[in-house]
Amino acid sequence: MGPVIGEDGVARCPWAGGPGVMRDYHDTEWGRPVQGESAYFERLTLEAFQSGLSWSTILAKREAFREVFAGFDAEVVAAYDEGDRARLMSDVRIVRNRLKIAAAITNARATLALREAEGLEALVLSFCPERPPAPATTEEMGTTSPESKALSKELKRRGFAFVGPTTMFALMEAIGVFDPHLTGCHRRGAAG
Description:
192 residues, mainly alpha, Endonuclease III, domain 1, two-stranded antiparallel sheet, 2 strands, DNA-3-methyladenine glycosylase I
């Protein structure tokens, strides 16, 4: 399936065809580059929490995630202890998954360790594909790539968790490591 024309006459990726939170996310954020450690840590964390769930579920809980993870300040999250884990597990406003909560804390600590090297942002960007995909249809869209597999492997080597190749591909799409929009979508080429 190629781009769909919404009731507003605009061509979009099919998952964002109707009005609502998914369309808003598609039109204003998905595929646009982000900057700074906390922005990268946030997207990495949210993609991990999304694993096995719908993205709309995560978007609906995003403000609560931002609150409970201290605006995705890696230093604060890295210091979380068992009391914080229990607090997070009892907070109905977020996805309460013990392994994903543990991964967020682990990844905050690994993010801090990267400060002594290139940093999370530079590391992720170093896996930008030489020839970005340009799918015309959803059937042509990938869920992994050689770059997402390599990024996953490198992040795991550096102590990160819940960073499989599919999750890293979704991260790369979300933060504009490459333009994820279908050719013909009004956002294709507009992400900067």
